[in-house]
Amino acid sequence: MSSLLEINNLTKYFAGNIKALDDVSFSINRGETLGLVGESGCGKTTLGRTIIKLYEPDSGKIIYNNQDITRLSPKQMLPFRKKIQMIFQDPYASLNPRMTAGDIIRESMIIHGVPKNEQSERVNKLLQLVGLNSEQAGRYPHEFSGGQRQRIGIARALAVEPEFIICDEPISALDVSIQAQIVNMLCDLQNEMGLTYLFIAHDLSMVRHISSRVAVMYLGKIVEIADSNELYSRPLHPYTISLLSSIPVPDPDKSDKRKILSLEGEIPSALNIPSGCNFHTRCPKAKPECRTLNAILSDKGENHLCSCPFA
Fold first, then answer.
1. What are phi and psi of 296, to 5 degrees?
2. Which of 11, 68, 121, 291 is paired with 27 by a 20 to 30 Å CA distance?
3. CA 221 – CA 198 distance, rounded (Å)
4. Beta strands in the chain (DSSP E)
5. C-alpha 96: how far from chain center
6. Per residue in 273-302, pLDDT tens?
7. Structure pTM?
8. How far is Cα 223 from Cα 286, in angstroms, rounded to an integer?
């Protein structure tokens, strides 16, 4: 399988000294879904927005389809923006309330030069593709439910026939009853259109359902990456073990018997990231040397990468 996206040593600072991304490296193969999980504030959304160049990286490289797009100007990025799209987290905030659903979907077609006589037909097809109908093209966002708004956001992302979509927590603002519908629709669209996803989420159960591989992020760093089944059955990093142990289990007997690895304290501030392994201040298995060691991802077998040397 060939890599569609390669991220090499990506670093991003805000306000000069807030390190949001810390030497992040990974790749995504064409046609797969890489799930990205971690606590709020760990840098997941920043990573997605830096990949699509809504934020400019401070160092490192973004290689898309063997082309370095890291330092391209907005004008030079235009052809790549057609190939890379984003579904945003909040369907209530990401749609312009003064535009109709049809105009929202059509906007990127205008930017990327889709012929005017093709636009309306494509808008109608996209609405049907995401489970809406062409009669709804003239409605405004406030006339739709949260799930319907997110479907409009997905149709907008598909409007210029992209290859790669960054899904930034696309279900977290939706009712539980709607979440599965949206995820199943994303899976169907991937199969039909050959899409590649970076799927950012909090819900570890949903990530397992949709992802081929999963990356775990903590305080701006990737601490573990593995195939989905491998990561969930054999987590190695103490942080990953803790995250997975917190997933609710519907069987009361199993829930009572399982061991939950609890973490101490709060996530450290990005203004003052701990030295050595940045997880050592909360890790229940920390050793004195964790304060100084350079925790880098290494292969533990079966393409299972983990940054903890004691895993």
1. -115, 155
2. 291
3. 16
4. 3-14, 18-29, 33-37, 59-64, 67-68, 84-87, 164-168, 196-200, 213-218, 221-227, 298-299, 305-306
5. 23
6. 898 999 999 988 889 999 998 889 999 998
7. 0.92
8. 15
